[in-house]
Automatic annotation (TrEMBL):
PANTHER family: PROTEIN PDC2 (PTHR19303:SF73), TRANSPOSON (PTHR19303). The gene is LOC115881424. Residues 128-152 are annotated as: Disordered. It comes from the Eukaryota. GO terms for cellular component: nucleus. This is Tigger transposable element-derived protein 4-like. Residues 1-51 form the HTH psq-type domain. Residues 60-130 form the HTH CENPB-type domain. GO terms for molecular function: DNA binding. Its main location: nucleus. InterPro entries: CenT-Element_Derived, DDE_SF_endonuclease_dom, Homeodomain-like_sf, HTH_CenpB_DNA-bd_dom, HTH_Psq. Residues 27-47 bind DNA.
Length: 496
């Protein structure tokens, strides 16, 4: 059998295929016209976002240059895209530092030389610039971003906001949180981005969503990794919306589910809202009836996103205030001072309930979305609680608190890669073991019901309760018998 030579594609060719499919052409039709396997076209389509990110690499190249350290290369490029998407400038020393950090993380003996960095830039179409050129570019970007923001406020904002009041204009943004970090070990975590999803069990991602009037704070959306069901089951009703993700990040699926639930609430209330959010792969377009989505482009985030005008930084401080007060309480009562995810969730809920509405409305004003039609109230953060902390621990002076509170401000909070990632078999097995541990069998349910029925029989209670319990007991007994018969039939197959 003659082997077919494997065909390689330029990025321009891949982009042409993607454009064809986006214009309504079926993948089968593309395969026939180009004489390609369906798996090839499907792979190109599934990788369309990454291909677009790489599209500034020279179109006539047969293949992108490869790296001797592919994992470091991939992680560093993802981090670079995240930073630039958020409107942040990235220079050579920053790239070298992050590359070596990623190398240590994956156990790769890697030294980021100037030569490797130059090749990395060429692989990904980044022009090499001197420090002076970088500084000039940063200044130009800032000027352009401000100009773009001003134009948006003048030309776009009046058109999209005209039919909405402050009560019905919302904005949201994610915040990364090392939920149990203490002042004494904060430096270990400072400047960590966790761009590869590391330290997921030490992190939470929190979506804050507020309206421009400051009088409505949506329930917090909290994302963690593998929070122990034994921890969460003690909280009958979480004061937040909790989701689980293996990297503790916002994902397109979580975002879509969050929006659809909110949209259903709004439909019942016959209320329509404008929702402002950062443009990101983790924030996909969603078909909604009562929510109008509008995306901030990356260059506008630092100036127009209200959450970045003081809401996130103030909420970090408030969370850490209540967390330290909880630790003081534990220490005074000789209780373990380690903060667990459920405790962090409760602290987040308390801090959000106490969060000052004026900070929210001021942030929309600072972003330029509304005129300063009332006297703005700017209050200093109340750090008098630190006196109690100092008395107990003797650490963390007043002027150090703000630095401690912002220890996790550089965390990556969103999934910015839509490619499916394979999960190691051992991770799947571990997850299954954890799941099986928490499955209640029919026999266990019956034993618990017997005790519950006995409790009500010995108490003066409504007969209806006992009647209902008898019906549940009968249903469980029938299921138990059915399960037993099934097991016998299976056993007989092996015996015979």
């Amino acid at each position: 059998m003659v082997k077919t030579k494997k065909r390689s594609f330029t990025i321009a060719e891949k982009l042409a295929i993607i454009e064809d499919i986006e214009n309504g052409r079926s993948q089968r039709s593309v395969c026939r016209s180009l004489n390609l396997n369906s798996s090839t076209v499907s792979c190109i389509w599934q990788s369309r976002h990454k291909i677009r990110n790489d599209s500034f690499v020279s179109g006539h190249q047969k293949k992108m240059r490869t790296s001797k350290h592919p994992q470091v290369d991939e992680l560093l490029y993802k981090w670079y895209l995240q930073q630039t998407a958020d409107g942040l400038a990235v220079n050579g020393p920053m790239l070298q530092s992050k590359a070596e950090e990623f190398g240590r993380m994956i156990g790769d003996e890697f030294n980021c030389s100037n030569g490797w960095l130059d090749r990395f830039k060429k692989r990904h179409g980044m022009c090499k610039k001197t420090e002076d050129e970088n500084e000039k570019k940063e200044e130009e970007n800032e000027s352009n971003d401000q100009s773009t923001s001003d134009d948006w406020l003048t030309d776009v904002w009046p058109n999209i906001s005209g039919n909405y009041t402050k009560d019905n204009i919302f904005s949201a943004e994610e915040m990364g949180l090392f939920y149990k970090v203490m002042p004494e070990n904060a430096e270990e975590y400072r400047n960590q981005t966790c761009a590869a999803g590391e330290l997921a069990e030490d992190r939470l991602t929190v979506l804050l969503c507020v309206n421009a009037a400051g009088n409505e704070k949506r329930r917090l959306l909290v994302i963690g990794k593998n929070v122990n069901p034994d921890h969460l089951k003690h909280i009958q009703r979480l004061p937040i919306d909790y989701y689980d993700d293996k990297k503790a990040w916002m994902t397109p699926t979580i975002f879509e589910d969050y929006l659809k639930k909110w949209d259903s609430e709004l439909i019942k209330k016959n209320k329509k809202v404008l929702f402002l959010v950062t443009n990101s792969l983790a924030h996909p377009q969603v078909k909604l009836r009562n929510i109008k989505l509008h995306y901030f482009s990356p260059g506008m985030i630092s100036t127009l996103q209200p959450l970045h005008q003081g809401i996130i930084s103030s909420f970090r401080q408030l969370y850490r205030k209540y967390m330290l007060l909880k630790v003081v309480e534990y220490q005074e009562n000789n209780i373990s001072t380690t903060i667990t995810p459920p405790e962090a969730i409760n602290i987040l809920s308390v801090a959000w309930k106490k969060f000052c509405p004026e900070i929210i409305s001021n942030s929309f004003w600072s972003a330029g979305l509304f005129e300063n039609d009332t006297e703005q109230m700017f209050t200093d953060f109340d750090n008098s609680f630190l006196v109690e902390w100092l008395n107990v621990t003797g650490s963390l002076e007043h002027n150090q608190f703000e630095e401690y509170a912002s220890v996790d401000s550089a965390l990556v909070t969103r999934q910015e890669n839509d490619e499916s990632e394979s999960i190691k078999e051992e991770e799947i097995e571990t997850d299954n073991e954890e799941t099986n541990k928490n499955v209640v069998t029919t026999q266990e349910a019956l034993l618990s019901l017997y005790k519950l029925r006995q409790y009500f029989l010995q108490s003066d209670n409504d007969d209806l309760i006992v009647t209902n319990l008898n019906e549940i007991q009968e249903s469980l007994q029938n299921r138990y018998i059915k399960d037993s018969d099934t097991q016998k039939k299976i056993a007989n197959l092996f015996v015979n």
